[in-house]
Amino acid sequence: MTAHRLKTLGHVLVLNGPNLNLLGTREPEIYGHTTLADINAGLEKRAMEADVAIDFYQSNHEGALVDKIQEARGKVDYIIFNAGAYTHYSIALRDAIAGVEIPTIEVHLSNIHQREEFRHTSVLAPVCLGQISGLGAFSYMAALEAVIDRLEKKAGEATESL
Ligand code: DQA
């Protein structure tokens, strides 16, 4: 373990679901030109500045995402999750989030409420801390800022009570 790790404020997992591996070339008029690797690099840089440990995982498979959420139990403080199309119908992912009790922020690049009717419903939102939708690649950064803010406040409270 490095000294940097020892003073880590917390641990965040950034999860991406189906087709998000295609970001940058996938329907750029909707999702932009930024790749998932670019998004993750920006998040990693910001997390490092804030002394937050960060891990990334993308899968096109529902069960693999369920496994990853279950593995995170007891290890991860927050999940930032773009579940892609699973957002709209995966009860398995909703149950996984509810089951592990890790505060999860749902993110979307596009504004799902402005798009087709079937995208207006998120079955995940009721078990998530919040939802950020429509800010493009910045949706992920906004979620990370919220996580950092919470972790810093928690660390401040812990120091005060010493
Ligand atoms: C998305 C919105 C979903 O409706 C869609 O299926 C995606 C991407 C977004 O980031 O805007 O795959 O989650």
Give the helices and strands, then pairings.
Layout: H1 3-6, E1 10-16, H2 28-31, H3 36-49, E2 52-58, H4 62-72, E3 78-82, H5 91-100, E4 104-108, E5 130-133, H6 138-160
Parallel strand pairs: 1-2, 1-3, 3-4, 4-5
Bound molecules: 1,3,4-trihydroxy-5-OXO-cyclohexanecarboxylic acid.
1,3,4-trihydroxy-5-OXO-cyclohexanecarboxylic acid is lined by residues 19, 82, 84-85, 87, 108-110, 112, 119.
Question: Summary?
Answer:
The chain is an alpha/beta fold and 162 residues long. Helix content is 41%, strand content 17%. It binds 1,3,4-trihydroxy-5-OXO-cyclohexanecarboxylic acid.
Structural features:
Rossmann fold; alpha/beta; disordered N terminus; five-stranded parallel β-sheet; binds 1,3,4-trihydroxy-5-OXO-cyclohexanecarboxylic acid; 5 strands; 162 residues
Which structural class is indicated by helix and strand composition?
alpha/beta
Strand percentage, roughly?
A: 15-25%
Bound molecules: 1,3,4-trihydroxy-5-OXO-cyclohexanecarboxylic acid
Briefly note the CATH topology name: Rossmann fold
Estimate the global geometry from the Cα principal axes: globular
Helix % is: 40-55%
Radius of gyration: 16 Å
Query: End-to-end span in angstroms?
Result: 25 Å
**CATH superfamily annotation:** Dehydroquinase, class II
Secondary-structure element sequence?
Answer: HEHHEHEHEEH
Described by strand count, sense and barrel closure, the largest sheet is: 5 strands, parallel
Mean pLDDT, to the nearest integer, reads: 94
User: How many structural units, i.e. domains?
Assistant: 1
CATH class categorisation: Alpha Beta
Strand order of the largest sheet: 2-1-3-4-5
SS elements, strand count:
5
Instruction: Report low-confidence residues grouped into runs of 5 or more.
Output: 1-5
Count of DSSP-assigned helices: 6
Query: Which second-level CATH architecture applies?
Result: 3-Layer(aba) Sandwich
